[in-house]
Amino acid sequence: MTVLLAIQHVTYAYPAVKTPNAALRDVSLQIQEGEYVVVLGHNGSGKSTLARLCNALLLPDEGNVLIGGMDTHDVAKRRSIRDMVGIIFQNPDNQIIATLVEDDIAWSLAIQGFAPELIAERVEDALIAVGIAALRQLPPHKLSGGQRQRVAIAGILALRPRCIIADEATSMLDPLARQEITGLLHHLNKEQGLTILQVTHLLEEAALADRVVVMEQGQIVVDEPPAKFFANVRRLHSLRLALPEPIEFAERLRNLGYSIAENALTIEAIVQELY
Ligand code: ADP
Ligand code: MG
Question: What share of the chain is helix, strand, coil (3-state, %, to 5)?
């Protein structure tokens, strides 16, 4: 396996607040190519800071961030790093620039001066990959929140990245759109082998990940597979993250004497266990 993202003993404090309470303190994390990692944590725990360090929007005060072996401190590598790791944010409206969906997706390629034929081909592929080919000629403001997040994802895909970081990208969406975007990220992970880092405060989004990372006060306090993570119900309570319904349900069944496997994280899996 290849390491795609290597965060090595990183400490970071925002310039205005160079206090003992840095946003990140001595954080280390390695992510392999093709992994789907969910990053959980309360507001202010350092999730977005971590995300921004991964595509050189921020640079570590101490330690190093290596993306595909390239150090984010290396100015000459910054363009390649940003093409390799794309971030989508909470509010799709802050990421949309052009007045037509297809122009918006083409934007980053156009400003990098790619040939029109190559841009057209990449935009086509990206539109299809996120399922909005039919909306290409519409102005983005006519689209739903979920569709606008798809435009943002397509804009990143057009750059042919190896990793997408979704920083609370579903938190402004309704539950259905939220599931669709999470589903799309999983699809891109499975079908295109894209590495995904999904930052969320919603515990249920962690169930299908390969790995769950939990941040607290600028540090990583948990890093393990979801089955192990959700099995430790006492710690889940102490982390004060709201439990997803299926996990709560399985726990109640266990308390009633049913034996439910620890890796049964969805209602369907729990029903199977009961049979
Ligand atoms: P999260 O994404 O988990 O909510 P952040 O990474 O945004 O956490 O924030 C980590 C810490 O850094 C918090 O204490 C927050 O107040 C602080 N912080 C975040 N962004 C800025 C900023 N632009 N300027 C100053 N402090 C910031
Ligand atoms: Mg955040």
Answer: 45, 20, 35
